[in-house]
Amino acid sequence: MPAANVAAQVRTSLASLKASDLQDAQIMEVLKLAHQLTDTMKLFFSSLDQSICQEFNYIADYISRTRDEIAALRPNDIKTQRIPTAGQELEAVVGDTERATETIMSEAEAVLCDEEADYDAYRANVEARMMTIIEACSFQDLAGQRVSKVVTSLRHVENRVSRFAEVMGVRDADQVVEETEEEKRAREQLLNGPAIGGPETSQDDIDAMFSDAAPVSDLDQDSIDSLFD
Amino acid sequence: MAVDMTMPILVVDDYKTMIRIIRNLLKQIGFENVDEAADGQEAYAKMQENKYGLVISDWNMEPMTGYELLQKVRADESMKATPFIMVTAESKTENVVAAKRAGVNNYIVKPFNAGTLKSKMSAVLGDF
């Protein structure tokens, strides 16, 4: 039963008692106090109902806004279109690269193995194979376009997720995320992958670490620090 | 002592193209007796059956990495003396230090050329 109804019912009962012509002064005093109490309670419960109502309205608004923002994310579009398309584009890049590499290497190996004694025939053969190599290099243009499409898709997803996080006031959870088996193996096996923009440690620095003059165990902190610059 | 140019060399990489590149570079340098394996596990099995004069291995492979292969080779009495060169895109100092501590003889970062491969092989095997 709503709080306001309870208060009204108590008030009605009190009024009924007062109207029954009671003569005891003490009972009348108690009824007076009870009346004041129910008045106070009525105010309290009505304010309570109002704040609960406001809370529910806020939650309803929040859910509605969240639903709108999720719709704006277009998760189905991301899941069924953008991510699969990006995956297909990357697979195509790998395929194009493999085919081009195969062609280039085969032609280069054929030139290296060419034992033609006649100069003109040798030259014609080399020129023909060089042209095939040049043609095969056209994969780079296609690969560039495909990678651009993938980058565009990733930017689209990034923008949508960022906007969603911003509007919803999402913050990263504080708790430590549990390491997966794959991540654990990568960490233990030091699988960092190629660095962007060239090797993190140059071949010259590696050579220095393998030279007799500077065995790894004897590297001082400055030498190690310089490797991280 | 002169380097035996006919010695068998084991090239370990999960990319066929990289194996082919290394094969060609080795051929250019003068080594034609080249065997290959697609990961550490296959390489270790081959090393148990054959004796190689040199192992040239990538790092990042599954199910057994080049780093694990190196550790297994160095822990196995029958093959612990086999020269081992790591050829990898893993270029963090921690990788180089870990490989050195595990007993690698030399370390080449990808991409590399025939000159680099030859100079590191010379550093490990002696001039040829």
Automatic annotation (TrEMBL), chain B:
Highest taxon, organism lineage: Bacteria
PROSITE patterns given in the database record: RESPONSE_REGULATORY
UniProt entry tagged with the keyword Phosphoprotein: yes
Keyword annotations: Phosphoprotein
Post-translational modification 4-aspartylphosphate, affected residues: 58
GO biological process: phosphorelay signal transduction system
Residue ranges occupied by any Response regulatory domain in the UniProt entry: 8-125
Pfam family, one: Response_reg
Record has Phosphoprotein as a keyword: yes
Name by which UniProt lists this protein: Response regulator receiver protein
Organism name: Maricaulis maris
